[in-house]
Amino acid sequence: MRPRHWAALLALGALWGSSYLWIKIGVQEIGPFTLVAFRLLVGAAALGLVLLVRRQALPRRWENWAPLAVMGITNTALPFVLISWGEQTVDSAVAAVLTGGVPLFVLILSHFLIRDERITLPRLAGLLLGFGGVVLLAARETGAAAGPGGARDLRQRPRPARSGRRSASWRWWRP
């Protein structure tokens, strides 16, 4: 890859990665549903501007809108709401790391569910590298990583806050 490609990749990673921090800040001020409404409004306005500049029109037939509505709800609105709702009780870094594992599981599921999406050797290498990265980040974030301050004596009684932080799925679904 060329240096400008690396720069674009780093910029994209910084933008996507920092979004979890901004979500965490936002839900403390306005709540998850309002935050998602504003995010979707800004995104719709930006896409509307792109349509205006390109002089393209939105679909005019109602049968075209049904699949777009389903995709918009399931691929954008619902995940935005769930992530924002979850960040009320989970650190933004934990949310980012947990979300980082989603494409890995999609790759595995698509191997079994979509005939044209088989796991090849390069995809397997990417899967293992990506999974290793998510495990490394998760271990580091939860304090399970070995090293100074990371390893913990298993005989030590865990503090409730630390235990809750280490069990992100429990914290996510806790009422």
Characterize this entry briefly:
The protein is mostly helical and 175 residues long. The chain has helices spanning 3-29, 32-54, 62-86, 92-100, 102-113, 121-142, 160-166, 168-173.
Oligomer: single chain
Structural class: mainly alpha
Instruction: Give helix and strand order, one letter per element, not per position.
Output: HHHHHHHH
Number of strands: 0
In whole angstroms, how far apart are the ends?
Answer: 46 Å
Helix content: over 70%
Mean pLDDT value: 79
Summarize the biggest pleated sheet: none
Shape: globular
Q: What is the count of distinct domains?
A: 2
**Number of helical regions:** 8
Describe the protein's architecture and organization.
- It is built from 8 helices and no strands.
- It has 175 residues and is mainly α.
- The protein starts with a helix and ends with a helix.
Q: Topology, please?
A:
Layout: H1 3-29, H2 32-54, H3 62-86, H4 92-100, H5 102-113, H6 121-142, H7 160-166, H8 168-173
Helix pairs in contact: 1-4, 2-3, 4-6
Describe the structure using short key phrases:
single chain; 175 residues; 0% strand; 8 helices; mainly alpha
